[in-house]
Design brief:
disordered N terminus; 2 domains; 18 helices; about 75% helix
């Protein structure tokens, strides 16, 4: 039985048959060649991350290449893709001048760029919109689509060339010449040392040439070697999105069916867990009420200083908010009955959300009082913004009890907007 369920789950998520390779057009061949330059630029970018102005220039260049390719294929990006393009540019353009968390911002920029590429081609699970399946869309953009189409650039360059040249009777001469040059390189590596050892003049010539190559060309050659797999990855992403190749490995209908396979926990067990957790939170707030809520009145409890009161338990409360979010999601996903159909389960999730909002409110009030005394700093603003975003998430969970709306989409877009705000605003100069 378990084996049947497992096999059924895999069939629901992944397609068994490989897609047919699409017919290549001249624009595909052109951009397959252009993406060699895109891959080289990315390797150059990663080899010198400190060179922030190049990060901005490369991001604009990448966005322009993707958009021109889409328009060349007569694909009009969905409306939401312009939002994600704005997020990507907001992370890249101010990067040379200020950045609160440069490493985190850089990797977030890469993730947003991949997601935007798939969104611009209209290949998200909801077409051109962010949905509750955003994590599957992100996994598609970062791993499934680019790696499943990893060799498409080579096929477009060589097979496309053979198709075009076959009609002219040339039998793919360009591809043959390029392949021959690649094969000749390791052969020359063996032959040239032998020739240099046989003749002093030739050895001096190779020595001077080797010095020039070592000073000027060797670094670029190494970058070119790394640029090839990078360009295969990047072109696989955009080519797969344009042609819809390997973009439907995850399907919304099949993912909806998959929910039935994880709804295995009895409702009573889920309700018991939620009830126990809510009871513990209630007792905690009842016992520590004066300590937790004194910040709302602007007073310090006991002998605490402002810094001690603000820092003590703040990050623990942040972690509790994250764990409660995961617990709410797991309870709604794993219970045998949908929360919308089980009144008790829905009430307990709502109660957990209310208690979490109270705890988040105490943390925000403590940090607010601390900021009012000691002023703003970057590392005080960032946790505060995160807590406010968490509050929005739990408010959306409460509102979904009375009305249906795309809560996940709203929360993701709000998080992206906050990320833009952090990137665009020069917080390190304001604090």
């Amino acid at each position: 039985m378990n084996e049947e369920v497992q096999n059924g789950s895999q069939e629901c998520l992944l397609r068994a048959s490989a897609p047919v390779f699409p017919k290549c057009e001249p624009v595909d061949r052109l951009f397959a060649a252009v993406y060699l330059l895109v891959g080289y630029g990315f390797v150059l970018l990663c080899s010198d991350v400190v060179n922030r102005p190049f990060t901005t220039a490369y991001t604009i260049f990448y966005a322009a290449v993707v958009l021109v390719y889409l328009w060349g294929k007569e694909i009009r990006p969905p409306k939401e893709s312009w939002f994600w393009l704005a997020v990507m540019l907001a992370a890249a353009i101010p990067y040379p001048y200020w950045s609160v968390l440069p490493v985190l911002q850089f990797f977030a920029l890469l993730a947003v760029a991949a997601y935007w590429t798939l969104c611009a081609s209209g290949r998200l699970l909801k077409g051109g919109q962010t949905s509750q399946w955003v994590f599957f869309d992100g996994w598609n953009a970062l791993a499934v689509v680019p790696f499943c189409n990893f060799g498409c650039q080579i096929r477009v360059l060589f097979e496309g060339g053979r198709q075009e040249d076959a009609s002219k009777g040339k039998s793919g001469r360009f591809g043959g010449v390029f392949l021959g040059v690649l094969i000749a390189i390791p052969v020359l590596v063996v032959i040239l040392p032998l020739l240099s050892s046989a003749d002093d003049g030739f050895q001096r010539l190779l020595g001077s040439l080797g010095g020039y190559i070592g000073d000027h060309l060797l670094a670029n050659l190494v970058r070119m070697l790394f640029a090839v797999p990078v360009s295969l990855y990047l072109f696989g992403l955009v080519f797969g999105g344009v042609h819809g190749r390997n973009t439907d490995r995850f399907q919304e209908e099949k993912l909806e069916e998959m929910r039935t396979y994880i709804r295995v926990v009895p409702d009573t067990a889920v309700c018991t867990v939620l009830a126990v957790v809510c009871l513990v939170y209630s007792l905690f707030m009842g016992i520590q009420g004066n300590y937790l809520f004194s910040a709302f009145a602007g007073t310090l409890p006991g002998t605490f200083t402002y810094s001690e009161y603000a820092r003590r338990g703040f990050f623990e409360l942040c972690q509790i908010g994250v764990w409660n979010l995961l617990l709410s999601g797991a309870a709604g996903a794993c219970s045998r009955t949908d929360r919308r159909k089980h009144r008790g389960l829905g009430l307990l999730i709502a109660l957990l959300s209310v208690l979490t909002l109270f705890l988040l409110g105490t943390a925000v009030s403590k940090m607010g009082m601390y900021i009012s005394v000691y002023g703003l700093t970057v590392y005080r603003i960032l946790p505060l913004l995160f807590m406010l975003w968490m509050g929005l998430v739990f408010v959306c969970i409460l509102l979904r009890r009375t009305r249906e709306f795309p809560a996940v989409r709203l929360c993701v877009l709000a998080g992206a907007a906050i990320f833009c705000l952090v990137c665009v605003c020069p917080l390190e100069y304001w604090t």
